[in-house]
Amino acid sequence: MSSRMASCIFCKIIKGDIPCFKLYESEKTLAFLDINPLSRGHALVIPKFHGEKLTDIPDDHLTELLPIAKKLALATGAKEYNILQNNGRGAHQEVDHVHFHMIPKPNPEEGLGISWPQQTTDTDKLKALYEEIKQKL
């Protein structure tokens, strides 16, 4: 085990070294309540495979994450909610282990607040970007 994994709070939760309010567990996935929730029912869904960013996780360890987030949204009775997954400090990731948040949004004060700084672009720039990305897929 790498020292990164050894010090990872989510890996410690997976191993059972740190307790959690476990909502779901399978061979590859764990879901539990967030201990610093933004709203009632805020939960985390994580792959048991340690990887810092989404691109570090093998595809077969990702298959359950969104279906479990969906089940959590239904189980909490959230009518409105956010599914959030951050990659890197600049993108607001605080724990270096991939995790998806299921955050109920019961009212304007609770849940996730978002700033959406839209940028203007033009068709030629979008077409060039489209071609660049399409070539790499």
UniProtKB/TrEMBL annotation:
GO biological process, one term: nucleotide metabolic process
Requisite cofactors: Mg(2+)
The keyword Isomerase appears for this protein: no
Catalytic activity: adenosine 5'-phosphoramidate + H2O = NH4(+) + AMP
Motif residue range(s): Histidine triad motif: 97-101
InterPro entries found in the cross-reference section: HINT (IPR039384), Histidine_triad_CS (IPR019808), Histidine_triad_HIT (IPR001310), HIT-like (IPR011146), HIT-like_sf (IPR036265)
Domain HIT: 9-112
Keyword match Magnesium: yes
GO molecular function, one term: hydrolase activity
Keywords: Hydrolase, Magnesium, Nucleotide-binding
Highest taxon listed in the record's lineage: Eukaryota
List of catalytic residues: 99 (tele-amp-histidine intermediate)
Protein family: Belongs to the HINT family.
PANTHER family named among the record's database cross-references: ADENOSINE 5'-MONOPHOSPHORAMIDASE HNT1, HIT FAMILY PROTEIN 1
Name used for this protein in its record: Adenosine 5'-monophosphoramidase HNT1
Source organism: Lasiosphaeris hirsuta
Native organism taxonomy: Eukaryota, Fungi, Dikarya, Ascomycota, Pezizomycotina
